[in-house]
Structure formats: structure tokens, C-alpha cells
Amino acid sequence: MRLGLFTLLVGAFSLPQGTCGERRALQVPLKQGLEQDAFSVYDDGLFTPLGDLSALSSSQFTRLSHPAFPRHSVRAKQSQFCDGKVRAYTGYIDVEAHHLFWFFFESRRDPDADDVIFWTNGGPGGSGAVGLFSELGPCRVTSANSTEWNPWSWNEHANIFFIEQPVSVGFSYAEFGESVSTTREAADDVAALMGIFFEHFTKFKGRALHLAGESYGGRYIPVFASAIYDKNAELVQAGLTPVNLTSIMLGNGCTDFSTMFPSYYDAQCADPTFPAIQDISTCVRLKQMVPRCEQRFKKSCVDILDKVDCAAAAAFCFEVLTGHYKNPYFYDRSRSCTHEEEMEVCYPIINDINAYLSQPHIQELLGVDPAVRGNYSLTSATVAAAFDASLDWYSFPAQYHVAALLERGVRALVFVGATDFICNWIGNERMTLGLEWTQQEAYRNEPLRDWLVDGKPAGLTRSGGGLTFATISGAGHLVSSSDSVST
Ligand SMILES: *[C@@H]1O[C@H](CO)[C@@H](O)[C@H](O)[C@H]1NC(C)=O
Ligand SMILES: *[C@@H]1O[C@H](CO)[C@@H](O)[C@H](O)[C@H]1NC(C)=O
Ligand SMILES: *[C@@H]1O[C@H](CO)[C@@H](O)[C@H](O)[C@H]1NC(C)=O
């Protein structure tokens, strides 16, 4: 059993043995820094915000730092590409030995007034460049040397970041063999990037920020948002402007496996929106396995966390509930791909993006660090293996983060391509119905109803208490790449 089988975009790798040892958590001396010299430096006027993004050079990086984030700095440059009609920027966030690559595009409508969106893909180990170049970005890669303009890009109405995280993904890199193996560590870097960005680019101060992600992003985003929210308390205490975290958006998220595992039965045998894909005898077997999986998962991963037993419980659940599932496609029950482990076969654009980002002239344009020039890959098997080894998939309840954010007025949108199997809508709906916050009845009392595009049903939705759940008919795991959302 390979847990990594389901990893978004990392399906084809096999786990390297013995390369994924636990690593000591980096201690973040933020509190100490804040209480002592960090803000006296700030107060002494030694920090000057850069002011406007357009002040950045297009030939070299400008380095930005901030006393509130003493371990972090940001490299940024203008990089005209992909959209052509708006300013685009690329750079790194440097966190001691960690260096995370990001792309930023201004809004096509009104960059001075529109909200800011942060996007990451999942994996673990999948690059945000998947979202950028095949789903919601300003252009789509069409070959190793060409892109086409995307009229449905999310930057039609918003300024948007795409990030390659954690380190080792895409153009992101680490020195001294450093690596990140948990969502929690990854969150520190993201919170610092957002903090430094809003402090430096003063016209964005107080602007609404939305955090969005897909697949394993359903686990990343709630934790990243919580880190930004909690960090705000320190910013306020220091007299700085808090980051205006307004919403989170989870697309085809695998946020919580205690609700997703049982849904693998439903998605094969009892989905009101999709025909059963297993015969009756298999469905009966699967149904029998649901309580056994639930019981083991609860005992070893939820009630306590015993790493050995929890890993065994999760492997058991995957094996008994998905083990015989071959076709249709894991990521899209409406596609009959036979190579369910090789995403490139169903989504050939992935090869094109890899080829495009491997071009030396594109890397030069983007300012890719010499340390990571050369052949590019959208996926990092190293990261996937490290997250597997740390049991990040099961070792924290990301859904509690969602509920805590809702409680604090941060809205949440959970959207799911209705034909995805692996992070399917039934499991996601269950996850949302189980969220506990003071407005939960306002959500739960709402019926699941159709939502319409041009008068035609486009999916199912329920909304209340700041939480919206929506399915998108005819879309699979990579929702935003489906034509049905584009319209
Ligand atoms: C892409 O364009 C660059 C620069 O024009 C050129 O050097 C390179 O050979 C082209 N690559 C392919 C695969 O066409
Ligand atoms: C945060 O953004 C929202 C939405 O744009 C806006 O209504 C609100 O005033 C902003 N809050 C702050 C403190 O700037
Ligand atoms: C990079 O990719 C090219 C084309 O796929 C291949 O021929 C070459 O061996 C690769 N280089 C490395 C260092 O992997």
C-alpha cells in the first residue's frame, strides 16, 4: 500500500526509502523578537516600506525585510509574462535557509482596489504553478514555448499570488538539505510572506485577503489562514496594520479523513448525483468495511495519535475502501483513464508546463535562482515522502481550524468538482456538516439546493453562518481547469 498513491500530481512516484526521517522543528523566535529589539528598530524609523510594487526593477531582485519578521526577507522583481496586460512580479521569500518561489499578478480590473488572493496547489509536493498555468491563472501553457491568454483568470477581479511551497517544490529550494515535512512549518513561511508583502506595499494595506487552495490545499489553507490570523495579534500589539484575512476557499480538499474515508463507499456505491460504479457484492463488502475503518482511524489517529497505529489504520482504510478501484479515474469519475497513477496521461498539459518552465530563457525572465536552474518539475516526490513520513495527512484536524476561523468571522467556501473521487463532494459535505462553531445551525438548517448558471443547474449548494458549500457539476479534481467553471 502506498499512501502517496493519492497525492495530487505526485501519483507516479514511489516512496524513496530511508530519506524521510523526522526533522527537528525550527523554533520561531517571533515573540522574543517582538518584545525585544524588533519593534524598537521599527519605532526608530529604520523600516521604510518600499511603497509601490511598480518601483521594483525588472532586471534584478529587490530585497525586502521587516523587523516584525526578523527571520524572513523577500526578493521581488517585475517579470512581464503570461498576462501581458497587467504587471506581473516574481520572487522568493527567504526564510533563513528556505527559499520559496512566488508569482504575483495584478488585477485586470482595478489593482488599487481589488482584493488579494493567495493560491497554492496540494500534493503535498504539488506546485502552485499547476493552478497558474492550467486552471485559474492569466495564461495557459500550450506548448514548451507558448502560452495563451486566459479570459477566465481569477485576476479578472483580484490581485493574485501563486506560490510554490513548501521548499523543494518547483523553483523553491533549501540550503544545507533543509526540508519541511509538516503543514505547520510551511505555514510560518506563508504567514511571513503575507505580512511582509502588506507592510511593504502600502497601497495593499488593509486590503481583503483570501487564501485558496486545492486538494491537499484543503489541509494547508486552514492552517496557513490560522497562522496569519494569530500573527495579527502580534502585529496589532506592535502598532502595525493586521492582515485583513477575509475568507478561505478550499477546492476539492481532502481536509479531514475521518469524513473522507467513509465517503469512498458513497462515491462508489451511493452518490445521488452519479451512478454506482461497483457491483452489488462489492458495494456490500465496502459498506461492511466503513465502520471498521472508522473505528480504527478514530482509535489511533483521532482519540490519540499513535504514529505507527495511525499509519496502519489509514493504510487499512485506503486498502479496503479504494483498493479494488481501478477505473474510472481517481481524479474524475467521468474520465476513463486507465493510468490512474500517472496524471500526465489524463492531463497532458502537465508535461507542457514542465517543459515551459524548464526553458532557460523563461527561468532567466522569472529570476529563478541559479541553485535550481535546469529541468523543472511541478511535483516534488521528496516533499510528498517527507509529509507521508511525518503523518501530516492525519495528525492534525484541519477542520477544527476551519471552524475556528468561521468563529472569528473569516468566511469559508468549500467547493468540489462533483465527479472527483479522491477528495469527493460527499466527504466534503460531511466535513462541513460536522463543523462546530456558534453559527453552525444557520448552515446545517439550510437545504442542499441547486445553483444556477444562465438558468441551468450548475451544482448543489448550501450556505449559512459564513460557510458556503458548493459542488460543480461535470468537474473533477482539478475543478478550475474544467470548462464548466469557466462559463
Ligand atoms: C523556445 O524559444 C527559445 C527562445 O526563442 C529557443 O531558444 C528554444 O529553442 C525554443 N524551444 C523550443 C522547444 O521550441
Ligand atoms: C477588510 O476587507 C473588507 C472587504 O473588502 C472591508 O470591508 C473591510 O473594511 C476591511 N477591513 C479593514 C480593517 O480594513
Ligand atoms: C532534462 O530534460 C531533458 C529533456 O527531457 C533531458 O534530455 C535531460 O537529460 C534532463 N536533464 C537532467 C539533468 O535531468
UniProtKB/TrEMBL annotation:
Leader sequence residues: 1-21
GO terms of molecular function: serine-type carboxypeptidase activity
InterPro entries: AB_hydrolase_fold, Peptidase_S10, Ser_caboxypep_ser_AS
GO cellular component terms attached to this protein's record: fungal-type vacuole
PROSITE patterns for this protein: CARBOXYPEPT_SER_SER
Family matches, as Pfam families: Peptidase_S10 (PF00450)
Identification of the protein by name: Carboxypeptidase
EC number assigned by the record: 3.4.16.-
Top EC class of this enzyme: hydrolase
